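Q: What would this complex look like in 3D?
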Amino acid sequence: MRTSVALPASPASRTRPQSRQVFFRKKVVPWLFVLPILLINVAVVLGPALSAVYYSMTNWSGLGPAEWVGLANFQRLAADGAFRHAFTNNVVWLAMFLTIPVGMALGAASLLAPVKRGSLFFRMALFIPYVLPSVITANLWRALLSPDRGIPAALTDLGLPGFDRAFLGSPQTVLPAIGFVDNWHWWGFLMVLFLAAMQNIPRELYESARLDGAGRWREFMDITLPGIRPTLVFMILMTTIWSFLTFDYIWILTQGGPAGASEVLAVLVFKEAFRNYNAGYASALGLTLSFFVGIVISVFVVLRRRGWEI
Amino acid sequence: MATTTTTTTTPPVLPPPKRGRMRREQSLAPNYTVLGALLVFALGPLLILSFNALKDRAELGSNPLGPPLQLNFANFAEAWEVGNFAVTTRNSAVLVAGTVAAVLFLGGMAAYSLAKLNLPGAGPLTMYLLIGSSLPIQLYLVPLFFAWQRLGLVNNLFGLILIYVATNAPFAVFLLRSYMLQIPSDFEDAARVDGASEWQVFSRVVVPLSWPGFLTVGLVVALSVWNEFLLATVFLTEQHLFTIVTSYANFATRFSRDWSLTSAAALMMILPIVAIFLLLQRRFIDGLTQGGLKG
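A: Here is my prediction, written as structure tokens for the whole assembly.
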């Protein structure tokens, strides 16, 4: 960090060419190191993101010239039933992912934290689904959930009621079913994060709690949860953001179907842009989506400024 | 591999309090039970996948979930042919190699500047990368696609590599920076006194000393590129450019009833990933949990 140690040139003793050299070495060279990747990032992310703001106010199809339409896209969006439906699905998705994976991961991590024998094995094995590509996971579960020869069929054969249905094919169950598949791949990652945080909690806290006669539940509530709060809050924030952006599993499994039942905002953007060639409207949707993400982040930042310890 | 990083080994000295010892020994049985059940949940589907890859079609019809009664390896060769794996593996490998090389090289340079060179404007740059990394891809995807189309970078592996480099850049820069910050400045200062240029300090001193960071970033980026779906679907639409992932998506739709074939293809795709993961799991997990926070 302190480059000045190497170059102790006091202003008085500096001659002109030296000071130019120093300027080059201290101001220009650092930027030369940053520039290549920064330019690529600007070309891919910042430039298109800014032009999305412009295109969102045009009726651009993606191919021809773009015609300025002002806020028409946003007016259309406000009245668009598909948009509201997709937004609702994102909220349902958020509710599922804030509860089920977080609960499973917290439970498993707190069970695994005191385990010594086989700890590494469990951590590794439960993490494996997270490293698999989404197309594999999605298609594997499409087969496993198939009503005629998948797991539901086997359970029905065993005489269990309620499994004789196409979970991915019916509008009532499709969203939870996709959520189930996505969660299969996701929760192990969350568990490993929580576990790492829990292993940083000083063991003595548990020892003394046990001396005080605290049970498992009290230990969890009084020591474990407060001990991992930064990680927990951060992952809740990220889950909230990602829930608005979710795409892969829904697109691969149903493309938003049946009859739009599993459509979410990201799927809508994709369809409008690349199926219906409404690049202008798709940009408006994308911008709105980013706006929601921005709100989530702002709420988080404001709460933290207000002194919430999150 | 054998180093235990996280477990704070409690000294086994404390004479356990009266009820404490009994309780602790008893108390792990339910832990193992629940964890075992979760293990079945996590790995059971993969076991069924492996079973089905080894069954012929007749057996699969009568026994879609259980272990195979006869081992049949013909599915793999057929899936390799039908799924055009020779081409798709090559495409994926080019994308991974190109992206990893560029991200490590260019990201390493940027990280060096941020960590060691007192970059004027480091604050705003960090802010930019942070905001850039939290922008949803759906925001810039549409204009990016049509811009890339005009530049001839759609259906072009290089065009997609550029995008992957950009989207992986913030993560790589931040993680590499944190590794480089841990290197004491004395080494670089000594090199500078000896007349080394910043480039030489970077390539001869800092990179060799922070190689674990490069390995971690390389693994995480390689995994994310290998598995990436959305961008590969949008930017590579010609069949001869399909990646292993996008081609499997088509393959699985085309042969959706032929589980032995799709399972064999899937198994071939995931075995290398799982093998590398198991070999280097600590580095993977560290990298993925340290800020490689992706959905």
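A: To summarize the key features: Residues 3-46 of chain A form one domain. Chain A touches chain B through 108 residues (CB under 8 Å).
Q: Very helpful, thank you.
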